[in-house]
Amino acid sequence: MKEVQLKLINTESFDSIEKARKSKVCFLPLTDLATNPLNTIYEDLDTKEDLDELIESIRETGLQQPLIASGSDNGGYVLLSGHRRLKALKQIFSEGVEVKYNDLTVTEEHIPVIIQHVYRTKEEQFKALVASNCYRHISKETNRKLIAEAVKIYNKQLSKGETDPGRTRDNIAKIANVSGRSVQRYVDIGKKGEPVRMKDQGKETNTPEKNTLQDDRKKLIKKMASLENRFTDLETSDFSQEDLKDFKTAAIPLINVIMQRLDIDAGEL
After folding, report:
1. Where residue 108 falls among pLDDT bands split at 50, 70, 90?
2. Quick check: 4 and 48 in contact, CB under 8 A?
3. What's the CATH number for 11-116?
4. What are phi and psi of 141, to 5 degrees?
């Protein structure tokens, strides 16, 4: 890996080059930065609206945080954090708009980056990427992708006899930085020491909590069906039409809300 050279356009914001170097922020050309192939795991979290908001923010207030990258054996650098910021910068550069980072000008030749050490294995790269994205709200699909990648790493470790002691579920959860319950939901785990595999999509394991919710849902369906029958009984009884109307006015909206939240079809009643 080639030595990182600190390139400052304007050193007046620092008392000295040494202070700039201690800030750990280097300025690298855009051509030296490669996107991380593993970042596709997080693609579903990045919407066009979010990117547009980020572009507008950088235009108005500048780049608030440097990118984070890892050195690579081919002499370049692989992003760990900042894929959206890099996309935004490319768009802004194409418009000819000046971008600032603190008091420094950011150009295609001078991108502020914090360099971490070289991660030589895919497992190291994956763990570093997960750590740099740990602040993000993870969707169900992203969670599944993280676990799928962790399963590959675990099976590779298993083939080399390098797995940590303890439960298979917990080892995979540790690699993906997710809960053991999430792993159990998506992974078929056999006997200890055997390779594991992802379950077919749509065939998740029902957790006790999920089973409880399903039971509660069935009970509510029965109660609402009973309530609907009660409406019919009231209409044929001596119950006044005015009171019946008031009762329905109060009860029906509540029933509709419950049906929507539990995704109950009217045909189930």
Report:
1. very high
2. no
3. 3.90.1530.10
4. -65, -40
User: Measured in Å, how far apart are the chain's first and last C-alpha atoms?
Assistant: 67
What is the per-residue pLDDT across 30-49, written as a single tens digit (0 to 9) for each?
Answer: 999 988 888 888 888 888 88
0.85 surpassed by pTM = no
Burial class of residue 89 (count of CB atoms within 10 Å of its CB; 0-12, 13-18, 19+): buried
Alpha-helical regions (H) of 70-193: 83-94, 122-132, 140-159, 168-176, 180-186
Residue with tokens 């990045």: 46
Residues 4/115, Cβ–Cβ less than 8 Å: yes
**Residues 134 and 177: beta-carbon distance below 8 Å:** yes
Looking at residues 5-23, what average pLDDT do you find? 38
Q: How far is CA 264 from CA 156, 207, 209, 224, 258, in A?
A: 44, 21, 19, 11, 8
Contacts for 53 with CB less than 8 Å, ≥ 6 apart = none
What's the pLDDT score for residue 134? 79
- Domain ranges within the chain, ordered by starting residue: 11-116, 138-198, 208-268
